[in-house]
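INFO batch 0412 | record 1 of 1 | parsing
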Amino acid sequence: MDKSRIRELLGFYEHELVRNILFFWDEKCIDKDNGGYFNCFDGKGENLLSHDKYIWSQGRFVWLFARLAAMDCGTLTKIERAKYLDWAAQGAEFLMAHCLIAPGVWRCAYVLDETGTPKTVEGWGDRLDLSLSADGFVVSGLARFARSANRRDCFEFAKTLYIAARDRYDRNDFINLPYPLRDGLRSHGKPMGFMNIAKELYEAALEFDPAYAEELKPQLREFAEDVLHTFADENHCVREVVAADGTFLTSLLGRHMNPGHTIEGMWFMTEIMDILGEPSWLKRIAAITWKALECGWDEDFGGLLHFCGLDGGEPKGETAPYENETMTIQLLHGWGDKLWWVHSEALYSTLLMYARTEDELFWEWHRRVFNYTFETFPNPNREVREWFQIHQRDGAPQNKVVALPVKDPYHIARNLLLIIELLYAMLSEDTK
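INFO prediction complete | emitting tokens
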């Protein structure tokens, strides 16, 4: 790619991050009285529907603001970076004070009220720890903030929480709302997510506890190889759900892919490949990424499907014996939805694969995803600007939420800042 095209893309993506996405969240998400963040907006971003604070999103906000504070390229000023560090700090303090279900019990609550008091969820009795992903995002957020602010206490909190979460992961001692699975099933999302969680903690440990960083490297390998060897089949399709023993299911639940998860997971995998010094993994990573794009693309309406079959299009198969699983219901009724986060992940992953492999196929995919994304998701209301979250298969906006009842900037902003950093690196390399 020539330098003029790189610069053109840089200008576009910097504008999108700063003038559209961050514009929406500037100030309005900050709870100046209690700490933490508000983000229970409707899908259009026009109304704040609740002051509840979902730990999953609170950890993501801390990560995002700490990461923005550490950007050493782009258009953010020193004053803006200092502001984001302050915002990350108040969120980190809120989490360390309130995220655990009880003092000294290293399990995160699922949701808090605005003051930080844990809330129960209908249908789950008095249990407060309802998602291991909540623990993971707190680990990621605090580990990233520890690096940006040189806060060892935040690193130690993240490390202790990670050790507890990893133990529960190994013992299968967790519920995982909003998509719990019955015993006897495994979700690709768990090792995929832990790749990123452990990577964030590893990078912080390099600064605060190098010996522990070395302990984490085998875990990075374990999570990555689990995805590559348990969930990815011989055709480079990542099965989203497998049996607990790793065998493939023949039902609908076992014969579908989640293109967004796969595409996101492959850039996680690329980072771990670099840490472990395993360049031979790149060929497999690229093949899996390409397969998810090919099968996930909607040939009729454009865009990437929420879920797809192993050969593309609508997932097919018998629902029994898993017809009552939350994921099965999602497959039947939401497979054709077009989600904002899936496309933001694809924007970064296609550009990353192009930079790593120099395969023009990935540049063509980036262009295709780019065109669909920016024709579909940005909100034309200049008072909002942030993206619509969900569209119907034909592209019509849906004013609803997915997973948590929140509007979450994490995926969009994270991928935009990663794209900006990658483009600067490409420009620097091209200049040499």
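INFO post-check: The chain has a mean pLDDT of 96.
INFO record closed
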